[in-house]
Write a structure and sequence with these properties.
The complex is a heterodimer of chains A (263) and B (304). Chain A has 263 residues and is mostly helical. Chain A contains 10 helices and 2 strands. A two-stranded antiparallel ribbon of chain A has the order 1-2. Chain B is built from 11 helices and 13 strands. Chain B has helices at residues 51-58, 76-81, 100-109, 117-123, 139-151, 169-183, 196-202, 220-227, 241-245, 267-277, 290-303, and strands at residues 13-22, 25-35, 40-44, 66-71, 85-88, 157-161, 188-193, 205-210, 213-218, 230-235, 250-256, 259-264, 281-287. Classes of the chains: A mainly alpha (263), B alpha/beta (304). The interface between A and B is large, with 36 and 50 residues. Chain B: It is found in: Cell membrane.
């Protein structure tokens, strides 16, 4: 056999910057999400359609904080859309693991942290798209009313809160194998949204239900996201939002670290 | 039989006193091995011999329980980060919703330096499929895509874990001719297989492993000779092991109760001796398969 040639000289080889994170990968990952019809329907079309039906209910023009009920519903629906999108994105991590793709990536310089950052970025971009979609529908519907700054603040807060659900998606994706994760996350998130006061204000629930609702994961983020509009934010809602985010991130990190031990 | 592989330059692969245990199971039990740059080496052994565990250790996917694993003189993960090592796995590792070109472009973007995507697809013979979704490719086409992905970083060491499993004869031949053409550039290739024929045909050197140990290491003809012996079984109480071993051409003698099992290259001599010089009865001679060769070689390793 011939001797080592120039290109195979280990001394000439470099390590990629940023642990392998780059624009090509982000572009392909985003394209994958947008090409997936199921993802687009459940995360972009569904929340927008819900916005259309919920947003037109009676009493939409009643005053809430610095805006009206239409604005309250809009902020809530944007949160729901973003949460669903981010959870769908998160659950794909486990799916890729089961397909052996994570193992393939382990044979490249891509650092595990860079992989997580990339997935988080894609989840945020998709969450932002969901928020924009719901807001566009809201604007076209012409019922929501609030100052533009409030509008932007609500959207930005919803984007931050998507992290909680991206982590939840990763966690559930690992616990429930294969493509079944979304079958649980879809109805599960809808249930949590009802319970957390995202679809129906908590004030309309019976006392007993409300006491339970305060402890569920959607309650905190819902209050946080609507705070710029309502100018109300109970301290326990903030504790709820931070607490569940920490819990889901910890759960996802725990499952993933257990998992990579036997990639 | 073991080839001495001390080399002035850093070996492509160096395993020294490597063991790997999973709980109570010993997957690898004390392997020492060095591969010279440019060698094409087969890891030959039955299922569960520890081939995949060794490959995983060379890829830094799993850490040895004890011992040293080095690739091109560095820690496996460091070699991976520099694109010096790549691997073709038997299954999985592909996303069905990406096209062939997207998959290669995705992989290519992760390395500091790579060969052009189109060149690599061409070399793997799938340039014509570039825009096809991976999920629509046949098993053989997917395997060639995995090969293309492995070539992207122009690795100095290429690891193949049972690369032709599930391929037809034609696909297998095409795959290996691509590998052979490619290896002339000085790349070291290490492949795991449980087919003696495949190892013999495509490797410069065969490392026979069984139960986590190297039981033989040599060229194809040398290894084939080991598998070509026969097994002689006979009823013989109080067998004189030393006398049988001294017959010449006897690899291994095993006494179980009143029966004796002898692995030998020259079965005629052993049979003649047993029937004429001992009270042996019920003599049985069988050709040794590769599996049995593994077993006898491992048995030898333990009694030595």
């Amino acid at each position: 056999m011939s001797t080592t040639t120039g290109t195979l000289d280990p001394a000439t080889r470099r390590v990629p910057p940023l642990g392998g994170l780059n624009r090509t990968v982000l572009g392909i990952e985003l394209r994958r999400m947008l090409r997936n019809r199921r993802t687009v329907i459940f995360t972009l079309v569904l929340p927008a359609a819900l916005m259309l039906s919920f947003g037109g209910q009676s009493g939409w023009d009643d005053k809430v904080g610095v805006g009206n009920v239409g604005a309250y519903i809009l902020a809530s629906m944007a949160m729901y859309g973003a949460a669903l999108t981010a959870a769908a994105g998160g659950s794909m991590v486990a799916l890729e693991r089961s397909l052996g793709w994570s193992r393939q990536l382990r044979l490249t310089p891509l650092h595990p942290v860079a992989y997580i950052l990339m997935k988080a970025f894609v989840a945020l971009v998709m969450g932002a798209l969901a928020i924009v979609a719901v807001n566009l529908v809201g604007i076209l519907q012409g019922k929501a009313e609030m100052p533009t700054s409030t509008w932007i603040q609500c959207g930005a807060l919803a984007l931050v809160c998507t992290l909680t659900f991206a982590a939840l998606g990763v966690f559930i994706g690992y616990v429930v194998p294969g493509e079944n994760a979304m079958q649980i996350l879809g109805p599960g998130l809808a249930l949590l949204s009802f319970l957390g006061g995202l679809f129906i204000p908590l004030s309309q629930y019976a006392e007993g239900v409300r006491l339970v609702a305060y402890w569920t994961p959607m309650y905190g983020v819902a209050e946080v996201v609507r705070a710029p509009l309502t100018h109300e934010l109970p301290w326990y809602a903030v504790v709820n939002a931070v607490g569940w985010c920490t819990l889901f991130v910890a759960g996802a990190a725990w499952r993933m670290s257990k998992d990579t031990a036997r990639v | 039989m073991t080839t001495n592989t001390t080399n002035a330059t850093a070996p492509a692969v160096r395993l020294a006193g490597v063991t790997k245990e999973f709980g109570d199971v010993r997957a690898v039990w004390g392997i020492d091995l060095a591969l010279r740059p440019g060698e094409i080496v087969a890891f030959l052994g039955p299922n569960g011999a520890g081939k995949t565990t060794n490959i995983d250790m060379l890829l830094g996917l799993t850490k040895p329980t004890s011992g040293t694993v080095e690739v091109l003189g560095m820690e496996p993960r460091k070699a991976i980060a520099r694109g010096l090592v790549s691997a073709v796995m038997q299954t999985g590792g592909l996303l069905k919703d990406l096209t062939v070109r997207e998959t290669a472009a995705y992989m290519a973007s992760l390395f500091a330096d790579t060969r052009p995507v189109d060149e690599v697809l061409d070399r793997a013979g799938i340039a014509g499929l570039a825009d096809r979704k991976v999920g629509k490719c046949s098993g053989g086409e997917q395997q060639r895509l995995r090969f293309a992905m492995a070539l992207l970083s122009d690795p100095a060491l290429l690891l193949l874990d049972e690369p032709t499993t599930g391929m037809d004869v034609e696909g297998r031949r095409a795959f290996w001719s691509a590998i052979r053409d490619d290896a002339s550039s000085g790349r070291t290739v290490l492949f795991a297989t449980h087919y003696l024929e495949e190892a013999d045909q495509y490797a410069d050197r065969i490392v026979l492993i069984s139960q986590g140990q190297v039981v033989a290491d040599g060229t194809g003809p040398q290894i084939r000779a080991l598998a070509s012996g026969r097994t002689i079984r006979a009823w013989l109480p109080d067998a004189d092991v030393a006398a049988i071993t001294a017959l010449g051409g006897v690899d291994h003698v095993e006494v179980r109760g009143e029966s004796v099992t002898i692995h030998a290259k020259d079965s005629d001599t052993v049979a003649r001796y047993l029937l004429t010089a001992t009270p042996a009865r019920d003599l049985e001679i069988t050709a040794k398969g590769i599996e049995e060769a593994f077993l006898s070689l491992t048995g030898q390793g333990e009694s030595a």
